């Protein structure tokens, strides 16, 4: 698995107003969610990881190599980023042509790009719309097109920016499976999220950003159990955890399934 190591990272659009303030973080083989309110620095952070922005100070190491020494094109072969707004990515007149842009740009042949793009569209359940104009699809489908375009590039690191926005339960299930499959393939997965329930259900590791700082980091169950510290970042616990606490169920449960399992168990008699 490729490794990303972030060391003492600082960045500001306006030098008087820092956005990223001394972030230290290592991306490991756990599926990782980054959560935080708007303005906490999450999107700026992933743009730095992608090389779309360059740090004012500090380093981002990709398998030991400083991103500052790499071009955006070189980084693109290693790190794929699915933008929050698919319309920031889509510009071709057919779905297949759109998905093929990334693979062709990183050096795949026309036949390779076509094959990998068709396979990626099948993974997001959009097989059969290859010749449709992307703007004839709804927003949720266009987000899947943008996701397919990154999957087709087969990068060892994949970053998602708010993938569940605009998705129904079926769409979220597709995204969940894609993320799990990517991890099974040995790829590193990082995701920016506002959806606490999805983060709790899918990700093993949670990183909390607050005002450009890394406030919390660790196992999802441990991070989400820290209600007061989450409130410092204006974040809430997952619904399942709140329900479990209200019912007096111990253990900081993360998902509805865990709550249902706990309720199905017979009560233990005091010894």
From TrEMBL:
Family annotation (InterPro entries): AAA+_ATPase, ABC_transporter-like_ATP-bd, ABC_transpr_CbiO/EcfA_su, ECF_ABC_transporter_ATP-bd, P-loop_NTPase
Keywords assigned: ATP-binding, Cell membrane, Membrane, Nucleotide-binding, Translocase, Transport
Name of a matching Pfam family: ABC_tran
Residues of the signal peptide: none
Main location: membrane
Subcellular location(s) per record: Cell membrane
PANTHER family the UniProt entry points to: ENERGY-COUPLING FACTOR TRANSPORTER ATP-BINDING PROTEIN ECFA1, HEAVY METAL TRANSPORTER
Family, per entry: Belongs to the ABC transporter superfamily.
Protein's UniProt name: Abc transporter
Organism: Trichococcus ilyis
